């Protein structure tokens, strides 16, 4: 998730929490104000009623002789007034309560004012009620209006925050991150200054520039070291091999001595192959190869089969080229792709059975372009599958063949092309090596 969106969500979450707190406080304030407003209205009604009683007399409201009470209701039953005799002396007291009243067979909820007063040594009670359903409806309306206003403010502030975050993070999103995404080689990194008023971003950009300077220097030293090692190791090995060959041309040396010379020459050849493999891995990992060639995969496979068929014939192994003639791979290094497939096929021959088979195929599926090399050889133990790409690891160490660098080279080439490799194997049944490249690097062409 992008930083600006996270900041907006955090801001929105905090505002939502504040919104609910404000809503609860607002609800309490509205409820309290509604009750106080109703109580003030009831007090005014009480004062008007008592003024009328004082003006026209209590007898105009009820007949004492008949022990009857006065009751007045408006047409909508929103308000009512009753005056009745009271047996308890509590003159001048005003009491408020919320009670239900049944009027003409209907039940209503009222906010009620009770007021006791005395006239001519007679106790009376005045009861004035106001229907609180109207008050509740008013409360709901006020609450809905408040919620709508708060939600509108909340949405507006979130949109505003996103805009502000985009503006504040512009140097990061439009200058620093694109620079990092386009890094394929430290030597091509753009060491540009960042024009921003945010000191943190300027510091980050300067730190990246300094880091890339160090990485570039390290890579240059590694390349120089690789070249020096190449020269310093191969030169003495070549001299030793030349001297051993001269010794073998001498017909006067004893047979046992000649055998020892041959053994030493074989060891030098093996050492030379190991050094070549390690230097190749180092060059691949140091990004010393280009990736600007378009390769017809079937042509490479045919060339590999032609160069390796002698080894396959020694074990009576059949190699099938099932690659589609139109499948091509752009933006790769042809030499490295050749080495990749060659090592996989060579490995399949080495660990295959007499009379076995090897199949090389390509699969275009979804967003992936895959090269598969499968065989029906001896297979790999499940506990060894995760180690097959480690250096100097071999599926059968007792065989004495190779030096365990072939699949390590394959892994380095795959990573160099930003691909992936997967192995499926069953002991005694064979193995399938699948190399996968992103479809954006795949192109199909017609080959005449």
Could you write a compact summary of the structure shown?
The protein has 448 residues and is α+β, with helices and mostly antiparallel strands.
List keywords for this structure.
five-stranded antiparallel beta sheet; 52% helix; Heat Shock Protein 90; 13 strands; rod-shaped; 3 domains; five-stranded mixed beta sheet; 8 helices; disordered C terminus; alpha+beta; 448 residues
Q: What report would you give on this structure?
A:
There is one protein chain. The protein is α+β, with helices and mostly antiparallel strands. It folds into three domains: about 160 residues, no CATH class; about 90 residues; about 160 residues, 2-Layer Sandwich (Heat Shock Protein 90), CATH 3.30.565. Helix content is about 50%, strand content about 20%. The strands form three sheets. The protein has a five-stranded antiparallel sheet with strand order 1-2-5-4-3. Strands 7-9-10-12-11 form a five-stranded mixed sheet. It has a three-stranded antiparallel sheet with strand order 6-8-13. Strand 11 and strand 12 form a beta hairpin. Helix 1 packs antiparallel against helix 2, helix 4 runs antiparallel to helix 5 and helix 5 runs parallel beside helix 8. The longest helix has about 55 residues. The two termini are about 50 Å apart. The C terminus is likely disordered.
């Amino acid at each position: 998730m992008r930083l600006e969106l996270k900041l907006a969500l955090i801001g929105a979450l905090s505002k939502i929490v504040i919104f609910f707190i404000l809503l609860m406080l607002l609800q309490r304030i509205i409820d309290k104000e509604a009750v106080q407003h109703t109580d003030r209205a009831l007090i005014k009604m009480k004062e008007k009623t008592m003024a009328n009683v004082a003006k026209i007399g209590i007898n105009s409201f009820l007949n004492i002789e008949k022990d009857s009470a006065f009751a007045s209701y408006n047409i909508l039953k929103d308000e009512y007034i009753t005056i009745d005799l009271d047996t308890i002396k509590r003159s001048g007291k005003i009491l408020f309560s919320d009670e239900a009243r049944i009027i003409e067979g209907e039940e209503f909820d009222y906010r009620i004012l009770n007021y006791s007063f005395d006239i001519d040594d007679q106790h009376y009670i005045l009861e004035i009620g106001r229907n609180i359903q109207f008050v509740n409806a008013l409360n709901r309306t006020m609450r809905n209006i408040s919620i709508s206003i708060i939600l509108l403010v909340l949405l507006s502030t979130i949109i505003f925050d996103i805009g502000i975050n985009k503006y504040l993070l512009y140097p990061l999103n439009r200058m620093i991150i694109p620079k990092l995404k386009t890094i394929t080689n430290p030597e091509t990194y753009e060491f540009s200054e960042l024009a921003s008023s945010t000191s943190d971003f300027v510091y980050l950009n300067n730190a990246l520039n300094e880091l890339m300077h160090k990485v570039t220097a390290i890579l240059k030293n590694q390349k120089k070291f690789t070249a020096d090692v190449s020269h310093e190791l191969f030169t003495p090995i070549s001299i030793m091999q030349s001297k051993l060959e001269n010794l073998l041309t001498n017909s006067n040396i004893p047979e046992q001595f000649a055998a020892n010379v041959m053994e030493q020459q074989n060891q030098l050849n093996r050492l030379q192959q190991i050094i070549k493999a390690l230097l190749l891995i180092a060059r691949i990992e140091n990004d010393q190869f280009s990736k600007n060639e378009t390769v017809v995969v079937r042509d490479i496979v045919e060339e590999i089969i032609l160069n390796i068929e002698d080894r396959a014939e020694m074990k009576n192994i059949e190699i099938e080229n099932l690659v589609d003639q139109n499948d091509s791979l752009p933006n790769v290094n042809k030499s490295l792709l050749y080495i990749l497939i060659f090592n996989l096929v060579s490995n399949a021959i080495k660990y295959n059975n007499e009379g076995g088979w090897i199949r090389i195929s390509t699969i275009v599926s979804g967003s992936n372009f895959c090269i598969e090399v499968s065989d029906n050889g001896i297979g790999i133990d499940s506990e060894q599958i995760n180690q097959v790409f480690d250096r100097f690891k071999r599926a059968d160490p007792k065989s004495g063949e190779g030096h365990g660098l072939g699949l390590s080279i394959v892994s380095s080439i795959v990573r160099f092309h930003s691909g992936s490799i997967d192995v499926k194997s069953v002991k005694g049944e064979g193995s399938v090596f699948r190399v996968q490249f992103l479809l954006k690097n795949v192109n199909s062409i017609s080959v005449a």
